[in-house]
Amino acid sequence: MKLHISLFTSLLIFSLQAVNASIDFVRDVQPILEHNCVSCHRADNAKGDIRLDKKKFAFESEDLIIPGNAEDSSLYWTTTLPQDDELFMPPIKNEEKDYPLTNAEKAVLKQWIDDGADWPDGIVLETKKRLPKEISFVEDIQPILELNCVACHYDGKVKGDLRLDTYEHAFASDHIIAPGKPLDSDLYVLCTLPQEDEMFMPPEGNDPLSSTDLFMLRRWIEEGADWPQGVTLVPQKKSFTLLGTLPKDLYKELGFKSGEVQDDFTSYHQSIKTSDLDFEMMPVKGGQFSMGSQADDGDRGENEHVAHPVKVSDFWMGKYEVTWDEYELWMINLDKDNREYNKVESTPADELSDAVTKPTSPYTDMSFGMGKRGYPAICMTQLSAKMYCMWLSARTGKFYRLPTEAEWEYACKAGTNTAYSFGNDASELSNHAWHLGNSRFQYQKVGQKSPNPLGLYDMHGNVWEWVLDKFSPPSKTAPAEVLVDPLNLPDTLYSRTVRGGSWDDGAKSHRSAARLGSEESWKQQDPQIPKSVWYHTDALFVGFRVVRPRTIPSVDDIEKFWPSEADISAIPSR
Asked: What is the pLDDT of residue 95?
């Protein structure tokens, strides 16, 4: 975290005066609401008929927020009640984990409402996980500093005459960390400036701190900025920590055995115990097929492989594309929130799934208003889809992953040799797929069209689906030998392969052999510098479905299917 203390003193003073002048909704109020309130007061979970995710709903009630009058605004006064009062907010359901707003947070809400409750237009609040009841420096703050700040401010590299690796150096100046006063602490304030501000930290070339990390940092400073004696910080590279639990470690923890074959090869419903959700997996008996399309097919796309023999092994495939309902259990940590809300006793599976890294908070609603409940999850990177599969495996104890490109096409064709699984007549597409001509210009709920012969829905259309393979232009000649379970492992960030066509494509993109490669333009709207590793903000047409191989791979092969250091090393340096 590069602090130009001597070079930009006057600019720094101006910035600090500006942010201290009044309560700022985005910096001061939004984090309090997102981490404490929105999970119970949003579009799909409006308890008490109260929504706090959008301005127009938050101000619908006459007494929830009364600009200029915090004492009569229930958003504020319910936080000041005795904790045993049934109206107390946020509710205390688990004495060990739930806690009231801090005095500093209540003061912010009060001042914000008394000052007029300004809520800038267009800001939509998202559910964020609650912080720990007690902030631990070693567990909560040290990783934030080591991943984002210390690399430029430690004994081996002292930018701006500042060190943040030891207590003595970090607190040498009273304006770097001012215990109890986050808005007087450069360490916090400079991270909240507009990203185009030359004083913004971390500097260009690094990811901004997530909203949760910022809120954690603020709470730590508000509570006195405790730094245990003798703790020295060491720079950490995000590339080594982004994965959380490493794939090989999780494989071993789950007790997978290389080469083990699952005998009961039938369809089944997979429940997710911490929610009321389940999804269905369909058996796909392996075999040999012709992958790609015939060279003399006049309708073939330029990216389709020339037909060649491929053999795949048995696997199960998701009957439907992964929906937001399922994906957000991991993406925004609803899985853990559900357990805490229902006071569910912790299990080893909880610990394993919680250790799989979750995405940073999205900058906007990634469904872009097209709907969530029952709709396919979209806009994730291939890394995100892989991480979800890793989390799902930890959550359920079964080995889930993305399909290979060969497995996907084999399942889509479902024993057919025609352009589509239903034949060659593109005029029949509307009976089987959501496409540009019938989608009403957005994705639709999964499972509404006719399934293919294997009982799989939306293999044509709705959203393109991630597969594991690198996208390579097709060879002009087909390999002569039969390829067995082929996988073209990615070695660069772009391009990676999606299959199946989408709601935004014409009939040609819905052919069983159609292919598409990812592009940097899929992140065009992403405001982060560098771009997020989790979200493709402009890929409103990309989702995924999961598979489960019947035979467990070896531990040495696990990184072919779950995220690996090779995946992370392909990401631009932070």
From this structure: 79
